[in-house]
Amino acid sequence: MRPVSEATSRILKQSFNRKYVALGRIVNNWPQIVGDKLADKAQPVKIRYRKTDKKKAPEASLDIAVSSANATLLHYQKDLILERINQVFGERWITSIRFVSSPSNEGRPIIKKRAAPLTADEKTTLSGMVSQISDDDVRERLQKLGHEILSQKDK
Questions:
Q1: Taking CA 47 as the corner, what is the angle to CA 15 and CA 74, rounded to the nearest 5 degrees?
Q2: In angstroms, rounded to a whole number, what is the distance separating the alpha carbons of residues 58 and 95?
Q3: DSSP letter assigned to residue 54
Q4: In terms of pLDDT, which residue wins out, 123 or 114?
Q5: pLDDT at 57
Q6: For the chain, how many helices (H) and strands (E)?
Q7: pLDDT band at 8 (very low <50, low <70, confident <90, very high)
Q8: Torsions phi, psi of 116, nearest 5?
Q9: What is the pTM of this model?
Q10: Model confidence at 132: pLDDT above 70
Q11: Which residue in 3, 29, 77, 95 could disulfide with 59, CB within 3.0 to 4.6 Å?
């Protein structure tokens, strides 16, 4: 008897080896392929294969998840994106790009937690540290900086 994990890994390796390694290479090089500005707005999702003739290599299509507004921008750069993707592989492997609509690929706005108020001990320690500074403006700025640092600490 053999563990099921041996058979599973052998079968999955044969099935998914080239497909997911290729997608991983695209994901790793994504900012260089589409540029830093568009890398956060569109993500490569899936590679679809089509077999044409037995003599020819299979053609591959890349699905890119993008919002409808950014899809227009990427559509005009489609040929450039294909060229850069195929430079990653060293051959013309991806032959077409499909844009898949997603509601919003842009990150959600980060909501900052409210800073915890300083304890009386922290306030006295902080004011003692900056009390020897003669310049009022510098002392006030350092007081604010210290307040921010101390209030952001996990208590």
A1: 170
A2: 10
A3: S
A4: 123
A5: 64
A6: 7, 3
A7: low
A8: -70, 140
A9: 0.52
A10: yes
A11: 95
Judged by phi (left if over 0) then psi (alpha if -120 to 50, else beta), residue 46 lies in beta
Q: Which CATH number fits domain 10-101: 3.30.70, 3.40.720, 3.30.420, 3.90.930?
A: 3.30.70
In what helix (H) or strand (E) does residue 7 lie, and over which residues does it extend?
helix 4-28
DSSP secondary structure string for all residues of 84-127: HHHHHHTSS-EEEEEEEE-S--SPPPPPPPPPPPPPHHHHHHHH
Determine the pLDDT at residue 36: 83
Look at the block and give the residue holding tokens 């600490």.
153
Note the residue count of the chain. 155
| Residue 41 confidence class, pLDDT cut points 50, 70, 90 | confident
The β-bridge partners of 47 are: 62
In the chain, CATH 3.30.70 sits at 10-101
